[in-house]
Predict the 3D structure of the following.
Amino acid sequence: MASQGAKIQQPKIVIIAAVARNGVIGADNRLLWRLKSDMKNFRGLTMGKVLIMGRKTYDSIGKPLPGRHIIVITRDKGLVIEGALVVPSLEAALDAGRRIAHETGADEVFIGGGGEIYAAAMGLADRLEITAVALEPEGDTVFPAIDLALWREEKRASFTKNADDEAAFDFISYVRR
């Protein structure tokens, strides 16, 4: 049992994204590739955790993801989404995410896009979980550059193109230096 003066451990803030070689993450509110292995990895990492995303990203998914506590950021004050908490800002999302993580015992809060949310969250994240996709598609949404002076690659696993994955890719974990 923790002593009364013990500090409550804050959950880690983790950005999770699939990013093409040219930084593109999507076009017209959709992914530009089919990687079944990436979807499985995403599910495994985020299951039982808080998952924050912007409204456009949520719309591209179309429904709350089972087994996760979904928080959607939107400027639309009247938006109600069944099965998700709707908040007006990244700050409000992180506050709610930390509270939910504490209540549920989760040790991580994930940020799952889109581009504007990633850009705002980069300075706040403790870890990046990146699927580096070996494609260079045209798109209208990009991931912010990963500054290797601030981030250290902790682990990498490489995969080849196959029947379930239409491109080669790497799962890369970065931790803040």
Summary: The CA atoms of residues 20 and 136 lie 6 Å apart. Helices lie at 36-46, 55-61, 90-104, 115-121.
